[in-house]
Amino acid sequence: EREEPNYFGAGPALLPTNVLQQAAKDLINFNGLGLGVGEISHRSKDGAGVVEQTSANLKKLLNIPDTHEVFFLQGGGTTGFSSIATNLTAAHAKKTGKIGKAGYVVTGTWSKKASEEAARLGVETEIVLDSKKVDGRFGTIPSVDKWSIPKDVSELSYLYYCDNETVNGVEFPEFPFEKFPGVEIVADMSSNFLSKKVDVSKYGLIFGGAQKNVGIAGISIYIIKKSLLDLPTVDELKKLGLPITPIAFDYPTVVKNNSAYNTIPTFTVHVVNLVLKNLIEKGGLEKQEVLNKVKAEILYNTLDKYPSVFKLPVDENVRSKMNVVFTIKDGSLDEEFLKGAADNKLTGLKGHRSVGGMRASIYNAVTLESVSLLVKYLDEFANAHK
Ligand code: PMP
């Protein structure tokens, strides 16, 4: 039981109360077994069933084609930064016999970190775009003609980008990768996974940590093109001088073992399944996408109304529908803004520690009612300070 929260935290983030109520019941007694979902073997019928059903529901919701497979890894987005670099570099080497470069499109904190991790692991990276270098700040996505696209794109093992930059509030409004024919596109969708429809067939890999739109922390979700699961042997990798992936994060090993090569956190996956079922019952992604658009629109419209009070650092065409980033022009009012919000039971609005300011994360579980209450507070605050 709880009062419906108006919580705008960026992650871990709000989940629907009915989902959590079911999860709480299942933590104690799952499927009438007299045991909780966290107590049963991941290899038992019910335990393995959790993974199977979660994959099936994900395939259904996102209309995932047969060319792609779903799997789960322990850990979050950062686990992906490392494991993508090693697995996909290996896949490219197997396919072409050559060691490629890993292409990165950097539009904010998380894509930057991902590129740095690849380099740290000894993978040669090619920064195809760094929007901060082009425009002097994160908050834009420069048009493709301003990117540094290699002459021969086939030398790229993959092209990585972050579909929604959680800290900077920048989201790709479209899929601008036509100039990379044949290159496997990798998307970090940690903070906008299942917020909209996605054409999975365009991607080599989509991944994300669960703890924003899809569940609680501890698990990450992968949708991979099956052809990328063909990797060189360890001996071949050693000969090529390529990094070897730790076994628990070796994609073919994980897929072969239905995401349970080692003990998978069944409860955490089960929460994802409950979120998926809830989404399906509520009309799927089409409906959710429309609702998310409305929520973002009313919030941005309100902020835009008061240019003397609020500042929006992100270009209008690339504003995130999940993480609405803004600052109070008079920074000395930050505390007052947050306190006033808390008095109105609006919480989780403080911006990421690296950039300051405010951030309202309006993930799937944040209702239109919550956003309306925030809008009302923004109006009041702005009118008192303009
Ligand atoms: N990618 C994105 C887009 C994120 O928002 C985050 C975390 N907020 C990460 C990656 C890193 O995730 P984790 O903390 O689960 O490693």
Question: Could you write a compact summary of the structure shown?
Answer:
This protein has helices at residues 17-28, 45-62, 77-96, 109-120, 131-135, 234-240, 251-256, 266-281, 284-305, 334-343, 368-385, and strands at 6-7, 68-74, 101-106, 125-130, 156-162, 164-165, 170-171, 185-188, 205-209, 219-225, 310-311, 323-328, 346-347, 358-361. The protein has 386 residues and is of the alpha/beta class.
- In this structure, how is the largest beta sheet organized? 7 strands, mixed
Just give the CATH class of the largest domain.
Answer: Alpha Beta
CATH architecture of the largest domain: 3-Layer(aba) Sandwich
The stretches of 5 or more residues where confidence is low (pLDDT under 50) are: none
The secondary-structure class comes to alpha/beta
Helix content, binned percent: 25-40%
Q: Report the CATH superfamily of the largest domain.
A: Type I PLP-dependent aspartate aminotransferase-like (Major domain)
What is the average of the pLDDT values? 97
Provide the succession of SSEs.
EHHEHEHEHEEEEEEHHHHEEHEEH
| Domain unit count | 2
CATH topology (fold) name of the largest domain: Aspartate Aminotransferase, domain 2
Give the number of DSSP strands.
14
Backbone shape:
globular
Hetero compounds: 4'-deoxy-4'-aminopyridoxal-5'-phosphate
Order the strands across the largest sheet as they lie in space.
2-10-9-8-5-3-4
Distance between the termini: 40 Å
How many DSSP H or I helices? 11
Instruction: Round the Cα radius of gyration to an integer and report it.
Output: 21 Å
Please indicate the percent range of residues in DSSP E strands (runs of 2 or more): 15-25%
